[in-house]
User: Fold this.
Amino acid sequence: MTILVLNCGSSSIKADVFQSSTLLRLRSFRVERVGTEQCVLKEADIETRLGDVGHAEAIKSILNKIEEPIEAIGHRVVHGGERFVHPTRITTGVLEDLQNLVELAPLHLPANIAGVEVCREHHPTVLQVAVFDTAFHATLPRRAKTYAIDQEIAVRHGIRRFGFHGTSHKWSAQQVALTMQVPLEELRIVVCHLGNGASVCAVENGRSIETSMGMTPLEGLVMGTRVGDIDAGALIALAQKEGWSLEELDLFLNKECGLKGLSGVGNDMRDILERSAEGDDKCRLAINVFVHRLRKYIGSYAAVMGGIDALVFTGGIGENSNVIRSRTCQNLGFLGLRLDADANSERPSTSKTVVEVSHYASRNKIFAVRADEEMMIAKDTQALFNELDTVVRPMGIPIAISARHLHLTQEAVEVLFGKGATLTVKAPISQPGQFACNEKVDLVGPKRTIKGVRVIGPVRPACQVEVSRTDEYTLGIDAPIRNSGDVRNSPGIKLVGPAGELTLTEGLICARRHIHMDPDSAKAFGVQDKDVVEVAIDGAGRDLIFGDVLVRVSPRYVLEMHIDTDEANAAELRRGDVGILQASSFQATLRSKKV
Ligand code: ADP
Assistant:
């Protein structure tokens, strides 16, 4: 079985196929110049001309070439907004949420979403996972992610720092920790991802605590065509003096600045280095500004973390340019960072992901790491697949929605319905031996009365009244969340039946959500009686994960999850008109287990 990783850029697509168990890379596809006549699909040295096709068609061409069975697909998604801070299983609801995030990354997200849609169409039953570039930076402290503007305005418009390249920063930090044989949680690492886009990240104890890209990928380092840091006042001056519209300014800052703007020869660092070596003044300035900005960030991130254990270069420039590495590391001796000229002539490769380039006497380490976002996404997808193992081969859990009801003792039945009365069967309910009764009573609370609450038979050793939170507000009683049967020290309630009244001193509870399981189902799910689990509901547009769900296992039970009406409404689950325990047409899936 395999995991497919899809990385859809605005004009290119990368697709790698990994063996699921070992993450051995089996195949690698590249599509370039999507949306132009020159669009071409490459695998190793085989090239197929695709003609003028868009993302969807290009992805289909890749999928058609993959004969290996796929068990999960990992998608690179550039922006996860506030909500997505972990690799996430893509459901219909998640896809809708992604569509709502498009304005945060209008250049990239549509391509990412196109990839998801085509794969869902082609492989509807395969687990699809979104891995977000922004997710690794979810740990940025408030002080690092906040711009100094009125926070009401900031929140209203989502003006905050997100950071990007998270998958690459995480990968590099992990690889370095492995090489150093020191737990990531004990290291302070500065990762410099220097590609066409470029960013620096301070990774402290395995968490991103600072990064140079901000609300958009425009902030920070000098990049191929992006300006990086610039005085906001300069933008106002530019717009005024050049008479540019916002769109023109946007285009200029993203496409015409950075190395391209400074050098005048384009955005390719190789060309700029070559010309600079020949004495081209503009190219020399471009490199000087690039390196100076980078050194400034490294120093400031060491200050933020109170030191640095490892400095990492990655991305096209970081991996390949020993000149940029050596220029950057000049005078970093005060941080205990000393480059080794010989070692620095090496570059990482597929067979050697991490190359140490620091001198043996350097107090701290310097590395060049081969960026491999696809491998990181494959790892994240594999981890989610393993975690959700029960989900992707789901045995659905039928959901029943439990309306307010009560259980009575025989004595209570006689007080409420008359001497010698017994409970009479209206209809059996799903749990064997239990039945909805014809008998109903009124619940009288200090605030209001709820009329006609149905009794569930057979009689029990203690009375128990199960209501929802909303019912509690109606009654004016605050009842605890309890497992069925546990009524100790719960509040009492007055019951009024056709033949009499009864004031319970205890017995009113809000039932804890739970799943009834027969022993075979429990075995299949890998759970035991009294385990507490999370359950995902793929609802009608309101996906929800219920935590704190108690598992109850008994040969007397049939597999069914019981939630109350409030919970069902929150998940947009419909229920029948009558119903004590009304089976719904929805199914839940067991997401994870915690005991
Ligand atoms: P992207 O951000 O588009 O994925 P890459 O990580 O592939 O970009 O990096 C592209 C950059 O790497 C380009 O500026 C390219 O010039 C630079 N680069 C590649 N090889 C070298 C090299 N040997 N020396 C200097 N720069 C290089």
